[in-house]
From TrEMBL:
The keyword Signal applies. InterPro entries: Sel1-like, Sel1_AlgK, TPR-like_helical_dom_sf. Pfam families: Sel1. This is Tetratricopeptide repeat protein. It comes from the Bacteria. Residues 1-22 form the signal peptide. PANTHER family: ERAD-ASSOCIATED E3 UBIQUITIN-PROTEIN LIGASE COMPONENT HRD3, SEL-1-LIKE PROTEIN. Keywords: Signal. Gene3D superfamilies: Tetratricopeptide repeat domain. The lineage of its organism: Bacteria, Pseudomonadati, Pseudomonadota, Alphaproteobacteria, Rhodobacterales.
Length: 209
């Protein structure tokens, strides 16, 4: 694999993976990421292994991503799921999102849309825009759930509001297949969902006319 291509891909993914100030050891993780982007993969991966074994979720997520794509290690979907799961259980939204995608695609585990939805939803409730867009796509396509354009539009609305770059485009495309009443309902549900801290995202909020 060409060095520059997978540095760029991995660095782009990891821009969303910066640990919070409360996580430790932040400096070791940041130094490892810098080493990885500089091409010193052995140092970075060795450090991530060490930090991951200590329970550092950002390192666990990064290690899972490396195993998923074979970046610096042999590609191993089962190992990727193991590390994603470890980080996801600690509340790491990126790991939850990546784990959802593994189940959606059937990588390292049988394809399971309901398990994918579960993990995307957990991440979405942490305002993870990519996961919110993934939920929109799942409802748009009817994967594991009945096809539901209103729910799909709602999640695209929410993802757009938190800054997901593709959500607005997907929402605009979906709108072409919806009635004005459906679009209004989706917008109303998005407002309620966000104002409730993602606790109330399923009930209709427009009265029949």
């Amino acid at each position: 694999m060409l060095k520059n291509s997978w540095i760029a891909i991995f660095a782009l993914k990891l821009m969303l993976a910066a640990p919070s100030e409360a996580q430790e050891p932040v400096l070791d993780y940041s130094a490892s990421l810098a080493a990885y982007n500089a091409g010193d993969y052995r140092t970075a991966l060795n450090n991530w292994h060490s930090l991951a074994e200590q329970g550092h979720p950002a390192s666990q997520c990064s290690l899972g991503y490396a195993y998923e794509h074979g970046f610096g290690v042999p590609q191993d979907y089962s190992e990727a799921i193991r590390w994603y799961k470890a980080a996801a259980d600690k509340g790491d939204a990126r790991a939850q999102a990546f784990l959802g995608q593994m189940y959606e695609k059937g990588l390292g585990a049988p394809q399971d849309y309901m398990e994918a939805i579960r993990w995307y939803t957990v991440a979405a409730k942490q305002s993870h825009g990519w996961s919110q867009s993934k939920l929109g796509e799942i409802y748009r396509r009817g994967q594991g759930v009945p096809k539901d354009f209103v729910s799909a539009h709602m999640w695209f609305n929410i993802a757009s509001a938190v800054g997901d770059p593709m959500a607005s485009f997907r929402r605009a495309e979906l709108k072409k297949s919806m009635t004005l009443v459906q679009v209004a309902e989706a917008k109303a549900r998005a407002r309620v969902c966000m104002s409730s801290g993602y606790d109330d995202c399923k009930k209709p909020h427009l009265r029949s006319r």
